[in-house]
């Protein structure tokens, strides 16, 4: 399960049209274990992206149930979907709403990407709203290559330890 945090970062940026410095506040989404880790990670990410001083002005928990990244998209869109679920104990139907974040070029593209991403869902769902999000980038917990890090020499997998102990008996 992801713990997502929206982090607002404030810094001075050169305005491309006028060439003057202007203060901007930008929002980024971080997948982290805690608020402390989210703050640490956003500082590390921003140090690589921003020259000069910046400050993290706000960190808040985000409630997205799904994130659909897309290499073709250029903006993040926030979508609200809903579906009907049956309570197994009482047998009553209840409406469940979820927030989804999808990267797309426009609202129609976001609509299509949501349907594509929810393709395996066994219940019918409705898309209640799609709106452009202020989020500029998403920093996942694992970027893909970090998952398969080299195991330190002093550590062995449990399976390997069991093999060694069974041969010693």
What is the helix fraction of residues, given as a range?
A: 10-25%
**What is the total domain count?**
2
Mean pLDDT: 86
- Beta strand count: 8
Structure class: alpha/beta
Biggest sheet layout:
4 strands, mixed
Terminus-to-terminus distance = 41 Å
Tell me the β content: 35-45%
Q: Secondary-structure element sequence?
A: EEHEEEEHEEH
Low-confidence stretches: 145-149
Shape, per Cα inertia axes: globular
Order of strands across the widest beta sheet? 3-1-2-8
> Total helix count?
3
What's the Cα radius of gyration? 22 Å
Description:
The protein has 3 helices and 8 strands, in the order E-E-H-E-E-E-E-H-E-E-H. 17% of the residues are buried. The strands form 2 sheets. A 4-stranded mixed sheet has the order 3-1-2-8. The chain folds into 2 domains: 1-62, Ubiquitin-like (UB roll), CATH 3.10.20; 63-134, no CATH class. By secondary structure, it is α/β, with parallel strands linked by helices.
SSE blueprint:
Elements: E1 4-14, E2 21-31, H1 35-49, E3 54-62, E4 64-68, E5 75-86, E6 93-104, H2 107-117, E7 125-132, E8 135-139, H3 158-168
Write a concise keyword list for the protein shown above:
169 residues, Ubiquitin-like (UB roll), four-stranded mixed β-sheet, 43% strand
Short description:
By secondary structure, this protein is of the alpha/beta class.
């Amino acid at each position: 399960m992801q713990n997502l945090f929206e982090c607002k970062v404030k810094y001075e940026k050169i305005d491309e049209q006028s060439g003057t410095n202007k203060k901007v506040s930008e929002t980024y989404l971080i997948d982290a274990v805690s608020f402390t880790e989210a703050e640490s990670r956003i500082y590390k990410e921003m140090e690589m992206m921003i020259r000069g001083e910046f400050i993290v002005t706000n960190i808040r928990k985000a409630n997205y149930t799904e994130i659909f990244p897309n290499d073709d998209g250029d903006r993040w869109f926030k979508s609200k979907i809903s579906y009907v679920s049956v309570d197994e104990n009482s047998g009553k139907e209840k409406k469940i709403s979820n927030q989804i974040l999808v990267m797309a070029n426009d609202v129609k593209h976001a609509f299509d990407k949501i349907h594509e991403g929810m393709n395996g869902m066994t219940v019918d769902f409705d898309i209640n709203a799609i709106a452009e999000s202020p989020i500029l980038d998403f920093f996942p917990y694992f970027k893909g290559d970090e998952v398969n890090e080299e195991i330190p020499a002093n550590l062995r997998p449990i399976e390997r330890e069991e093999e060694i102990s069974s041969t010693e008996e």
